[in-house]
């Protein structure tokens, strides 16, 4: 399954990390796979957000069972 690219936000100050994570949770919802927070320099951080692969419908199951498809 094709993956969506990992989203990256650079140079986020420490005190904004919870707000950025909350924003991404609202944007991607259930598709969220993982969030990686890494300190870059001084008190700034890089946040990477990965979502789950794009899901395709299981049309071959409907064909095998005689259903529509």
Characterize the structure shown.
By secondary structure, the chain is α+β, with helices and mostly antiparallel strands. It has one domain. Helices cover 28% and strands 36% of the residues. It is built from 2 helices and 3 strands; from the N terminus they run βαββα. A 3-stranded antiparallel beta sheet has the order 1-3-2, with helices on one face. A hairpin with a 2-residue loop joins strand 2 and strand 3. The longest helix is centred in the N-terminal third of the chain and has 12 residues. The protein is elongated.
Summarize the structure.
Strand 2 (32-41) and strand 3 form a beta hairpin. The chain is built from two helices and three strands. 28% of the residues lie in helices and 36% in strands.
Topology:
Elements: E1 7-13, H1 17-28, E2 32-41, E3 44-51, H2 59-65
Secondary structure: number of strands: 3
Number of helices: 2
Number of folding domains? 1
Report how far apart the termini are. Answer: 20 Å
- Shape descriptor reads elongated
Rg to the nearest angstrom?
18 Å
Low-pLDDT residue spans: none
Helical content band? 25-40%
Strand content: 35-45%
Structural class: alpha+beta
Sheet with most strands: strand arrangement:
1-3-2
